[in-house]
Amino acid sequence: YASAARVVESDVGDVERAIELYGKVLQIQPQNLEAVEALRRLFQAAERYAEMSQILQRKAQVLDDPSEKKEALFSAASLEEEVLNRPEQAIGVYEAVLAIDPDDLKALEALIGLYLSLGRWEELIATQQKKVDLVAEAEEKKAIYYQMGAVYERELKDIPRSIDTYQK
Description:
The chain has helices at 2-12, 15-28, 33-45, 49-62, 66-83, 87-100, 105-118, 121-134, 138-155, 159-167. By secondary structure, it is mainly α. It is elongated. The N and C termini lie far apart (61 Å). The model has no long low-confidence stretch (mean pLDDT 96).
């Protein structure tokens, strides 16, 4: 199937048939990185971004290196968020990054932005708390605490927690 897919892709130029054949390769060999990468390339060329996101997430499962896994997941999350406009799915992908590396500031910052835009205040606060525990610079910690205090005050109407957070 892999050989046929390469021929159909390169010599015949039938993207749909090549996708079908590479899919069969993955049914037989779910960890076949060559087929996964070929499908990513084909989905990108065909502008089938939802499927491209899925194959990038699958690629992250196949890879061994944590940094390569995160790179594939960040690409998938970017597609979900910016191209497909599916913030809920993007959140799931960023959470997969944090499952690999709980201290990834880029993923935490992306989640903060998504939670803020969706008005998911409790999750926003929890994610900001994770971030404040990771940053070292005092000024950055102060800015995060200020943002958290504002959420408690304006969105959650929790004045005592707001005051405690502002005092931090």
